[in-house]
């Protein structure tokens, strides 16, 4: 980066893009029988016409306009600010974006306003990585430990992880970093294809939480199909209360599920802790986090041993900065990162995050499972590539966030041509 | 209620109403130095031109448009439905409103979408109470325990309170209910005026969390002024991390604060539990909840003894139904309800809630402190009335939610005449 050049954010555009996936039952589950995978999409324009940052927040269709409105509400915190301001202290800029005294009331740091923040912060990192000519995973892998820490707002997590401790963790892995970068570039990062577990495809796929006898019948079929050597995950999509979750899953223990995902409300830290404890004798872990609202929730989930698999969502946590905070917290508690990858454009993002975790933060991919969903990649400028069940390390500059202009026009809601056809 | 009549919701209108209070420093605090007290306002129109339900969600200004967008997103869950549907099973209708499979993603049950829900649910209860010709507190006080329970969605709280247990709690207080109604009507409900503690008024008022030496100086002045017989509350508005909160408040212990309010992130259950435990030897309680996002958070706060004063917010929890759930949880743990009353129209709402708690749920007002803020009441059709430091029980039908039409027009944002003057 040349110190002479300054890039100023001059304008933002916000788009509501929806793919009518409900027609095809992609991604349906007990709580979301008919999602339309969608993006609240933002472009940060700069005074350099060749340099734009693109970011999106994933949604299920209705309500995308709420996130779009929330993104626009942040415009005045962005326009006129420079990329160099962000680069010089990404954590401070992140705090600037989360600290508007009036907007804060309608969070703080959760729900629509935080999903909007994610889109914006993703776009800032896309801009930064493009400017540096690096894919995001590599940009951050090349940071010094000190630079990495500057990305993080330690507010509200310093009781569990302090900057000093984090610095030591990062420094310990620094000398072996280049070895892992090579390893990643040669082998790719292990991916897990989630679609098989989703409801609605056909009778032999796993579904959970509606009817116990039916769940038993289905898991039996799946185990007969895949045997007991392969891992089988089960997902309840929050349908149970705490006691019910424990009773239900115990009755599925004979099928040796590797984890139970989202057994109850994503906000219930103590509930997840109780479920984890009850299922430990059965060797069934608890996975949660795709609805995990912020670092403060993850901090407590980890403090109480409430989750054994940490399912960060790239667009629900407040963008890359907050993700890095959660990676550090999870590494401290030796809990593997298993990002949520279902949905439009999430696989593109989470590959970068898992790679950063492997190279810089946890130093391992041993138990990390990074979800991959095989939908809608054709709409992305830099789609993720899977080879032999592994994510190939991206090499184009940016955060793989950019949706093709033609797709954005076609699927623009409610007036794009694809919605005229479907309506 | 006559069984012959059916009232159908035909239309909703949504308004963005903002009072330019930042010009006068009403309600400023460490996190919100310059709020414009505002309302995301909804009117439920029915096929009976004489019957409308009004509801609002309180905000601090910027971002009100996000809540308005979120309210509109719920329109299709309301229009064509009948008031009788709501009345016959308010808890089921509440779940209907919170369970849209696509909207749920951008919560669930938190942030902008939940603030929008509050406005809608408040309007439904206003409609119901008007139809019955009763003020809300009286409508609900007249419910049988069974009717009361039907208002509550026990999802995600049944591990801590089950309907049976709640029923017993309510039944125990039933025989003495009429005595408390009389007592309330004669004496009113004790109010606490918060304005004195807010920042920005003048030098002698309490402010906290910015500079320790300054806090000590100020508390000294206040104690010299009011003596040690009166209660003094201190409020940090979330500025501290957990360790810092403990250290800071210990150094203020000599001034015998009754409670420390919002010492850290409102999402940090375990953090509040640690702070509570550390301050117990000093006889300083922890108060929190005005940013408490839903019943699942309050459940855990109560489970861990993280708060000693439960500060529910009438427009942040998902309206009356979820408030009733939290009242039950608090009563179970013998924690007093101290609702958040600062802001436009909140005092009008919380008086009803405190009265319901007193008459039906906890049966006591012993340690309950209901905040009263003396601003903006002139804009309300049925403003709350304080006599001798106590809320007079409202007697007009409804939930005291309705803002005068003239005020709504004057303060409509951004095009109302008052905003033309201020801009």
Automatic annotation (TrEMBL), chains A, B:
Residues 173-282 form the Mandelate racemase/muconate lactonizing enzyme C-terminal domain. It comes from the Eukaryota. One of its GO terms (molecular function) is magnesium ion binding. Gene3D superfamilies: Enolase-like C-terminal domain (3.20.20.120), Enolase-like, N-terminal domain (3.30.390.10). It catalyses: L-fuconate = 2-dehydro-3-deoxy-L-fuconate + H2O. The keyword Lyase applies. GO terms for biological process: amino acid catabolic process; carbohydrate catabolic process. Its cofactor is Mg(2+). Keywords: Lyase, Magnesium, Metal-binding. Its EC number is 4.2.1.68. Belongs to the mandelate racemase/muconate lactonizing enzyme family. ENOSF1 subfamily. PANTHER family: ENOLASE SUPERFAMILY, MANDELATE RACEMASE (PTHR13794), MITOCHONDRIAL ENOLASE SUPERFAMILY MEMBER 1 (PTHR13794:SF58). This is Mitochondrial enolase superfamily member 1.
